[in-house]
Amino acid sequence: MSAQEPITTSRPPVPPAAKSPPAAGVSSAQAEGAVPEITFDIRDLCVFYGASRALQNVTLQIDSHQVTAIIGPSGCGKSTFIRTLNRMHELTPGARHTGSIRLRGRDLYGPDIDPTIVRREVGMVFQKSNPFPTMSIAENVLVGLRLNGVRDKGVLRERLEESLRMAALWDEVKDILGRPGIGLSGGQQQRLCIARALAVRPEVLLMDEPCSALDPLATAKIEELINTLRASYTVVIVTHNMQQAARVSDRTAFFYLGKLVEYDETRTIFMNPANPQTEAYVSGRFG
Amino acid sequence: MTPRPDPTAALHRNSRWGDRSFRLLCLAGASTIFVLLLLVAYQLYHGSQLARAQFGWKFLVGSTWDPVDEVYGALPFIYGTFVSSAIALLIAVPLSVGTAIYLTELAPVRLRQPLVSVIEMLAAVPSVIWGLWGIFVLVPFLRTTAYPPLQHALGFLPLFQGPIYGIGMLTGGIIVAIMILPIVTSVSREVLRSVPNLQREAAYGLGATRWEVTRIAVLSYARRGIFGAAVLGLGRALGETMAVTMVIGNSSDISRSLFAPGYTLASVIANEFTEATTDRYLSALFELGLVLLGLTVVINALAQVMIRAIASKETRRVA
Amino acid sequence: MAMSSTANHRYRRLKNALMNAVSILCAVLVISPLGLILFYLIRQGVAALNWEFFTHVPGPVGQPGSGMGNAIIGTVELLVLASLAGVPIGVLGGVYLSEYGGDRVNDWIRFWADVLNGVPSIVWGMVAYAIAVVPFKTFSAYSGGLALGFIMIPLVLRTTEEVLVLVPRSYREAGLALGLPQWKMISRIVLPTALKGIVTGVLLAMGRVAGETAPLLFTAFGNRYWSHHLSEPIAALPLQIFAYAISPYDDWHRQAWAGALVLIFLVFALSAGVRLLSSERKKS
Fold first, then answer.
1. Could you tell me the pLDDT band of residue A287, with boundaries at 50, 70 and 90?
2. b/e per residue, C58-85, with b = 16+ CB within 10 A?
């Protein structure tokens, strides 16, 4: 690794040598008096699996109603990072972390916080689509609601249509809602999983390489729908496909070897990155 | 969209109660294994209290079993259990290994699954039905057709002298052999199947015949696994009750002849438990049960250790 | 490498052919008992099968119209009792091994469960006798069901675990990511996904236990009449077959064969159910 220090704030890019620790609690929005609210405020996050460190001192803020892309070569920690945002990383035995993550000002890992509830607020879509095999399309979409106690048939019907529309799947499946979820094509299954995640009305949608198992046409459909999601959700998407990051995201974070190297507006990261490592990666010279 | 409740307030609700109780429930289920182990050991130990107090270790070597005079000794049954199991292994292991070889190396592919299914069906036949068939089909056949020539040929050995009844130790061993064939065959087959093809190909490459390939590359590699299969079969043989009871003759005299009737630990318990008139009698039967439990637990634990050792060796090799 | 001489080569070819023949012979010998047994069961048993056999209770020797109806029902009742004990405990235990627990503890549980599966069934009869017959001073269906339940628990536990482990991890993650508590994720997503496999394991265990005689000899004990309470001794097919087989009467021998035919039919029906479910699973 070079001697360059990582740039980790959401402020406008500064020359590589400078280190500017973020002032506590001050977001760029307050600093500039301009718009985006902050959904996630992450400070000095380190993640360990047993003795090995997967993430080192990650500090960034994720803005609301934006699509934030996380890019980087394999093994750079991007999956680990995204899983800390909904407390899924702690399912791995031996996982622990230091540092803090705040969701809208509340500490996600506070002693009285129930991870189950966190996961209702921060939804996730996985790399390989995984609709539940014993359930129909409708049952898949509504499973999160039903198992959390929602019984009102009217609410369920309304939420079913709403989620499938948001996932751009309604027209294709509205007549076959009773058919098994696994009977759909790969791209449709993934959109079904998106609908399923959206049905519980999370605030954030995390997407861990959602298109990596899909063909270009299915991928395009999902990218289109990501674009529409930002109106109602905050989206964080991990992708190994840089063109995809460039297409769908507002801000991009580049991770390498467990560190956050650069985080800025997508346009800047791809056209005019401040860090030479970022430049090397986005121009395809490695990873 | 309908308005959404404040998310941060919701973060505090706790689902721990549900998780904890379910986990506890499942833990209770899993720990019944230990409960059962302790239970069976305790009940047999406790139930055999009287007999153990009276006879001590001499019980294991006492060869008299006389409920009338209340003298009890386990030797005839230990002897019978071992001899019938040994006969069963001697018959079943070669046959099973031969069959396993046939199934993995020689049989046409289309035949394999049906044959495996047949063997699974064999494993499902209840012991009492084998016993029924044993009494009315096997025993007469052996008495009239198979044993006389055997005695004629091998009668110089004390093993094959004496009157032929049809029922007896040898018959008991044969029927137990039939009953352990399926399990020894399945496990042997699994073991042979797990021999990597590289071994076979190496031997073929040297110009070996099919049998030579099997002998050199497969069997020697699989030796330990097959031994494990045999030990598993032994564990099963030790505990066989009904079929043995019906054909072994049920006599507590120890005889050198295989044609003479014998008795096994499980059989005597089966026959005499409901006839046990006194507490001491019952206690002696419980002690027989304790011996049987000890034998089967040790042999089965040994078999399990062997099977696990072989399985882990394989995964390590693949990794 | 020098070519072996033709004599040596012929010897090796001969030996090969011989060993082939031997192994085919082994296979034939191993498989033939099944054919033999089915042949005799059908030949000897069919004659005594009639409507009375299924609906009447045993009568005195030679009396026409005797049957094993009570034994058939008794076996069914005992199976239900055994399953009531064996299935919930076994399934929950299997869930623990698959979803919870530490590696080392779970290895021990598995090891001892496998050892328990090798304990002779008569020993379980003795335990059930001590627990359920002696204190209540009566043989009963309860004690018979208990003995059979002891046998079912480790069986169902292992088969359940083996099936649950096959459920892909991503379903669990997807369930948790929706904000489901772990217990709901397991009971409403993982278990239903594995249901067919679990049922298969239960059917296998029931088939095994349906044919057990030894543990019932001094628990259920047998009954020549209909039992009206589960706290009474109860007839069971294997018990009846045994009693008739060792009796000196031809008429009862014939009924034993018939009972055996019914029993094997029951056992094979259960394992046919298993096969059906397994192939359905493979197709989907």
1. low
2. beeeeeeebbbbbbbbbbebbbebbbeb
pLDDT of residue B40: 96
Do strands A122-125 and A38-49 pair parallel, antiparallel, or not at all (unpaired)? unpaired
Interchain proximity A116–B15, CB inside 8 Å: yes
Q: Are A207 and A125 in contact (CB under 8 A)?
A: yes
Pairwise CB contact (< 8 Å): B13 & A114: yes
- Using the beta-carbon criterion (under 8 Å), do C177 and A123 form an inter-chain contact? yes
The percent of residues in chain C predicted with pLDDT above 90, rounded, is: 63
Name the average pLDDT for chain A: 84
Question: Rounded to two decimals, what is the model's pTM?
Answer: 0.86
Which residues in chain B have Cβ-Cβ distances shorter than 8 Å to C182? 19, 22-23
Per-residue pLDDT band at B319 (split at 50, 70, 90): very low
CA distances from B94 to B99, C21, C172 (A): 8, 14, 46
Q: Could you identify the residue written with the tokens 């989206």?
A: A235
Q: Tell me which fold the domain A31-282 belongs to.
A: Rossmann fold (3.40.50)
Statement: residue B246 has pLDDT above 80:
yes
Domain residue ranges in chain B = 49-318
- Residue range A92-116, pLDDT digits in tens: 888 889 999 999 888 999 888 888 8
The size of chain C, in residues, is: 284
Interface test with chain C among B33, B85, B101, by most C beta carbons within 10 Å: B33
Rounded to 10°, the helix B169-193/B220-239 angle is: 140
3-class secondary structure, C221: strand
- The tokens describing B252, both together, are 């507590």
CATH number of residue C167's parent domain: 1.10.3720.10
Q: Does B197 touch chain A (CB under 8 A)?
A: no
Whether B302 shows a pLDDT value over 50: the answer reads yes
**Closest to A278 in 3D by CA, of A69, A44, A137:** A69
Are the beta carbons of C242 and B242 closer than 8 angstroms?
Answer: yes
pLDDT band, very low/low/confident/very high, at C149 (cuts 50, 70, 90) = very high
In sequence order, the 6+-apart residues with CB closer than 8 A to the CB of C237 are C68, C71, C72, C74, C75, C210, C259, C262, C263, C266
Strand partners for A208:
A238
Q: Does B39 touch chain C (CB under 8 A)?
A: yes
Whether residue A147 lies within 8 A of chain C, CB to CB, comes out as yes
Instruction: Collapse the DSSP code of A11 into the 3-class scheme (helix H, G, I; strand E, B; otherwise coil) and give the result.
Output: coil
How does pLDDT run across B269-299, given as a tens digit for each residue? 999 999 888 999 999 999 999 999 999 999 9
CA angle C262, C265, C269 (to 5 degrees): 140
**Helical H segments across B125-205, by residue range:** 127-133, 139-141, 147-154, 169-193, 197-205
Task: Give residue B223's pLDDT.
Answer: 85
Residue A208: C-alpha distances to residues A199, B160, C225 (Å): 18, 75, 67
**Whole domain around residue C104: which residue ranges?**
72-236
- Structure ipTM: 0.90
Domain count, chain C: 1
Q: Look at the domain B49-318 and name its fold.
A: MetI-like fold (1.10.3720)
| Cα→Cα distances A226→A125, A160, A210, B271, Å | 12, 19, 11, 76
Residue given tokens 């259960």 in the structure block? C270
Has residue C213 been placed in a domain?
yes
pLDDT in tens, C185-241: 999 999 999 999 999 999 999 999 999 999 999 999 988 888 888 999 999 999 999
Q: Helix, strand, or coil here: B99?
A: helix
Report the range of poorest mean pLDDT among A50-54, A201-205, B75-79, C1-5: C1-5
Q: Across residues B59-75, what is the average pLDDT? A: 89
Domain boundary assignment for chain A: 31-282
